[in-house]
Amino acid sequence: MALLAGRLCAVLGALALALPRTGAVDEQPGDAHGASQGFQIVTFKWHHVQDPYIIALWILVASLAKIVFHLSHKVTSVVPESALLIVLGLVLGGIVWAADHIASFTLTPTLFFFYLLPPIVLDAGYFMPNRLFFGNLGTILLYAVIGTVWNAATTGLSLYGVFCSGLMGDLKTGLLDFLLFGSLIAAVDPVAVLAVFEEVHVNEVLFIIVFGESLLNDAVTVVLYNVFESFVMIGGDKVTGVDCVKGIVSFFVVSLGGTLVGVVFAFLLSLVTRFTKHVRIIEPGFVFVISYLSYLTSEMLSLSAILAITFCGICCQKYVKANISEQSATTVRYTMKMLASGAETIIFMFLGISAVDPLIWTWNTAFVLLTLVFISVYRAIGVVLQTWILNRYRMVQLETIDQVVMSYGGLRGAVAYALVVLLDETKVKEKNLFVSTTLIVVFFTVIFQGLTIKPLVQWLKVKRSEEREPKLNEKLHGRAFDHILSAIEDISGQIGHNYLRDKWSNFDRKVLSKVLMRRSAQKSRDRILNVFHELNLKDAISYVTEGERRGSLAFIRSPSTDNMVNVDFSTPRPSTVEASVSYLLRENVSAVCLDMQSLEQRRRSIRDTEDMVTHHTLQQYLYKPRQEYKHLYSRHKLTPSEADKQDKEIFHRTMRKRLESFKSAKLGINQNKKAAKLYKRERAQKRRNSSIPNGKLLMESPAHNFTIKEKDLELSDTEEVPDYEAEETSGGIEFLANVTKDTASDSPAGIDNPVFFPDEDLYPSIIARVPPWLCPGETVVPSQRARVQIPQSPSNFRRLAPFRLSNKSVDSILLVDSPEERLHTLPESTHM
Amino acid sequence: MGSCSSHAAVIPDLDNIRRETGFSQASLLRLYHRFRALDRNNKGYLSHTDFQQIGALAVNPLGDRIVDSFFPDGNHQVDFSGFVRVLAHFRPVDEEDPGMRDPKQPEPLNSRMNKLRFAFQLYDLDRDGKISRHEMLQVLRLMVGVQVTEEQLESIADRTVQEADEDGDGAVSFLEFAKSLEKMNVEQKMSIRVLK
């Protein structure tokens, strides 16, 4: 936090540099007082605090303005916030100018590039939907590189052509000046694009393409800008072919170098967060400071700073999120959003304020209008041409609507403005014209196109005419359709399997994660695995709770070994199954419990629940389809925890259901009817068994050694459970608390703890077939007794296997489902 | 992607499948690669296991039901043509005038009615042509968060059935199901544009 504070001070200091003194008048009262002699109890020292004070006031004004905008939902739903802020800036600038007659507050390049831009870009990188981004990387790069070069060249050349025809009158410019102008006006601006696109809900592919392009084209802009600027400095006639080649080479150096710097710093950052276990409180600071250093470093090396910090964010996100504690992650998330959102607000407001300065305004109707026309037209042409090429290779075609939105969404913003202000007036004679034109372009694109893009998108799509509240059926089935679609997309493999991605994830798993992640994080890194882990944990806990309740852990030993000896497994007999699976748990939760509850509740329920209530309930609690919450980046909103929760819930259900259906499929049990009966019978058995005085698990089984060799953590005894708790400091404890509560009221659910089932014999085969992300983290050592009751024939063993609800997760269960796989995957499991 | 290198000829029974599903050759090839990727051990068909390997399905409330719909009539395997046939329901509806279609031809798989029928059979587990209150409740239970009490769920299920039920038999037939959704743009909602 200290680091953060330090950085905040730096920002404020820089703002102060940008903001000259308006306090001149206000100083008088202080001075008047100061005339008196001797010690004063109270002094008024305005100029002592003047600069930071003014900055703070500006930030406050901007933030208050945001509040005001959002008071009216109608306004913000029509007008993008960025446009509102620019208008506000214009008004404020007008007021300041009217009072002072000096344009005292402007957006200076230093302020913009050093303090306002980095948080925005870091935020974009850190929350980048990686899979989507890399899935479309080719497209994004083409638009970012070729598209930007195309825009710059055509705009510059066309303007020069018109200039030669004499339409613009007499300007002191040459070809290079026009190309320079073209290069700075060509780039689509990440800040502006995001500000507008966030409010226009386009599909995620389109979103990531425009957004990615706006981020990555920075390298091109920087290079083009530098090249043409230096050409202008040298003078047009002295530019040689060598210089041009150098320019092209420098493009690769700048872009790849910037990316490399970002990756190196991301590596450093991940490595540092691996060791912050004991300094949790400053953990979030590292994220900001190190990424900021990557930005400054590449700026220092004159590489693309935006690329550096973007890739720093993109690369570190996975490891950092896994390493830092949950609270720190939340802090990072909120701080980042706050900084980015704040910076964006200030940028747009100051863009407006900067425009109120008569000194910079030089009007040339032809130049301004033609610039507007050219950038729009050439953008559209460029998009259409590139899309035409891309569509021959792309799986997801970019359709006409997408192309229109893409062309229309080419907003210019503060980057162009900051670059144009940087121009040297002695070399570029028409700097003021360029500045005013850039401002016009920015305002036009942000305000006009920003305003119209939303209606345009809605108009282009098939319009939904009905305004009425959808009926219950429509609401429910509509959501069901969304889920169906999402599932079909997953099945049809929309994104597809990618050789490179597989290679990368392999490398990541084998090398990077090992180096960059904490051990505990390595284990729980996979979300699904996580959920499964929790499921297991829950089972384990309820199991222990049950044990404590009975005062003995003996009941683990499943019912009587003696009746196991001659069991005929070829006929579906539930006896072993009941004893071994945690189906009790499942039944309890899903069928038995709820039904009982509902029966009772139905009796006393007020039947005439209002329609509205029903609608509301559905509205609020229907699960959202995956696509709606994943994959999307938003600068102002944070919702991932919701999504995680939903995923977990559904995952729990799915797993339970699969187990049930597996069981009924394999054993022919009609779940719903027999469940209660089985449950009772089993409980009876349990009670009988609990009298066996055997409270300790045997540790010297060969299986144990095996496990030790294989893994670094095992749940070999119930005593291990608290260890889990210690490991997962943040989430774990709450979870445990919840679970314990649940199960306490839940009667003896989860006696059959799947965790305590043997699975190591299947281990090699499972390893071979389990996809990498499911590879086992930890395993469980079974008790000797438990192993004894494993049936002796291979096929029986296979049949039992699914009931190990261990962290081999789904696949180990599923494995058993396909009979044809039995033969060749089966290890010599008979030796037991 | 990769459509130049590998040939569509590798797909067995290509022409029939194309005619039946209306997929373009490129799409079929892509789906075939997907099919092969899902098919562990190159069995030539997919089992439940193969589908359940798709991690995202585990967090889809209807995931398992959709997987089951690939296995009609209690089969345990689905070959490529069966696989594609299910996916064909989600092909976007062609722009051309539906009136131009040869009336002798069966309705294409991606027609509105077939899309609806596909959804309907996800609800209608016992295949009696009706969504009973119980079946509706089951689906609701899958799709609604744990915050909603069982009581609320039942009330929602009741209302949903009542709303659609026209002949008063306490269940929703396919026609009633289709009618209740007549205002909805099913053609658009149940189409994936990748599947051409």
TrEMBL record, chain A:
One of its GO terms (molecular function) is identical protein binding. It is found in: Apical cell membrane; Early endosome membrane; Recycling endosome membrane. Residues 59-459 form the Cation/H+ exchanger transmembrane domain. Pfam families: Na_H_Exchanger. Residues 1-24 form the signal peptide. The chain crosses the membrane at residues 53-71, 83-99, 111-128, 140-163, 175-197, 204-228, 248-272, 341-361, 367-389, 401-421, 433-453. One of its GO terms (cellular component) is early endosome membrane. Its main location: membrane. It catalyses: Na(+)(in) + H(+)(out) = Na(+)(out) + H(+)(in). GO terms for biological process: regulation of intracellular pH; sodium ion import across plasma membrane. It is a multi-pass membrane protein. Keywords: Antiport, Cell membrane, Endosome, Ion transport, Membrane, Phosphoprotein, Signal, Sodium, Sodium transport, Transmembrane, Transmembrane helix, Transport. Belongs to the monovalent cation:proton antiporter 1 (CPA1) transporter (TC 2.A.36) family. Plasma membrane Na(+)/H(+) antiporter. Exchanges intracellular H(+) ions for extracellular Na(+) in 1:1 stoichiometry, playing a key role in salt and fluid absorption and pH homeostasis. Major apical Na(+)/H(+) exchanger in kidney and intestine playing an important role in renal and intestine Na(+) absorption and blood pressure regulation. This is Sodium/hydrogen exchanger. The gene is SLC9A3.
UniProtKB/TrEMBL annotation, chain B:
One of its GO terms (molecular function) is calcium ion binding. The keyword Transport applies. Transmembrane segments: none annotated. One of its GO terms (cellular component) is nucleoplasm. InterPro entries: Calcineurin_B_homologous, EF-hand-dom_pair, EF_Hand_1_Ca_BS, EF_hand_dom. Its main location: membrane. It comes from the Eukaryota. The keyword Transferase does not apply. SUPFAM superfamilies: EF-hand (SSF47473). It is found in: Cell membrane; Cytoplasm; Nucleus. GO terms for biological process: cellular response to calcium ion; positive regulation of calcineurin-NFAT signaling cascade; positive regulation of cell population proliferation; positive regulation of protein import into nucleus; positive regulation of transcription by RNA polymerase II; protein transport. Belongs to the calcineurin regulatory subunit family. CHP subfamily. PANTHER family: EG:114D9.1 PROTEIN-RELATED. This is Calcineurin like EF-hand protein 2. The gene is CHP2.
